[in-house]
Amino acid sequence: MYRNLIRSWGALKFCLLLFVLGSCDHEYEYRYFQSGKVSRNYQTQNVIVVIIDGLRYTEAWGDSIHKFMPRISNDLADIGVINNSFYNKGGTYTSAGHTSITTGIYQEIDNGGAELPENPSIFQYWNQAYGNDPLKSWIITSKDKLAILGNCINPYWTDKFKPPVNSGVDGLGLGSGYREDSLTLKTAIEILKVHHPNLVIINFRDPDYSAHSGIWESYVNGIRKTDEYVFRLWQFIQTNSYYTNTTTMFVTSDHGRHLDSVADGFAGHGDGCDGCRHLGFFACGPDFKNGITLNEPREQIDLPATIARLMGFELPNTKGKVMFELFSRR
User: pTM of the prediction?
Assistant: First the structure.
């Protein structure tokens, strides 16, 4: 009898152990995908990320006279940091490049907007950590397919802590088509004026859209126009009482373009060639150095890690590193 009781008690303890382990594992997974506040002591209160879609490094900072981007090189470079060694080490196409910038994780993903990112974005993590009003973060893109950046398929995060998305024609999202970049700039400035969001990503479709035509002059004109839009955005930031002296701006690309030695040259992209992977990078803000050019090997997933540091929240499950070399002090 006692032997049976002992056996029954042993079986019960084993079942309890399995239950506890299972609960712990579930709790571990839950915490693993949660963010939290991180102590911070920076002047930056707002971060705006500008993605110039498909700009190849050789036509950006790789050009010694910067003939296609005079505004950024002449009017902004002295107030920020350039890094000539910034790379996309994931998929070199639009959806993948933007996903790595917003999640801190490289992911192969459908490039037509038919698939959500697997992991939460910096917007969701920041909103969750601080219990933000959703209108305090925004995704504003010329390409309608980038509406996917507002959500993810992680079961703990699907449809939670989402930022508002204004993508494509009239901001209507997937299926509406691509919007002119001039309208995206106008929309972005209006959203900044009305809602005062603190965390924003803006996608300008050129020069990628124009480069796919295979017409070189269209491609470089797309660069010139976007260069002007970035400058106007910074002008607005500096003249708006909510944003001046408290805003950090990053300017980079989601992917580059094939080198001329590749069959379709600048018109295409999507492989591992240096032209597709090597990107331009510029950052300016109250906590960053001024007039500095770096050659520090960095990659896309380091950008969201740096944003998380500036804005004071955890970014779980990323291998990205904070780009401390940008900071004027740690």
Answer: 0.90
